[in-house]
Design goal:
The chain is of the alpha+beta class and 124 residues long. The protein contains 4 helices and 6 strands. A 6-stranded mixed β-sheet has the order 1-2-3-4-5-6. Helix 1 packs antiparallel against helix 3. The chain is globular, with a radius of gyration of 14 Å.
Amino acid sequence: MANVLAATMGYSTGYADVDAVLAKLLAGVRGTLGPQLIGVYLDGSLATGDFAQHSSDIDVLVVTEGVLAEEVIAALGTMHARLAAGTSKWARKLEVSYIPRRALRRFNPDDNCHPCIQRAVISS
């Protein structure tokens, strides 16, 4: 996985319009989660080099300190909807999973439902 932070630190995915959406996403996630944010990571085809502009989406993993409260998840949904309402098609192709750090360290089959915002629709 490539750290999305690289998109705002002089690195590039190779697609300026994708970089712009990732920078906006990172700013929105930082602003919404504050100290709950541990890391933001690019995943999927864009991270592995299999990205196809005509068919790919943008997969992102956001690691949080703990389980997110319902009001925070709602605020993230609102932030994603604002991004999707913009002019970039890539903002409408974001698929972002929000996972607590502990869930990444150890898989718990009884606790493996985590918020995922796909194309500005919240699911778990």
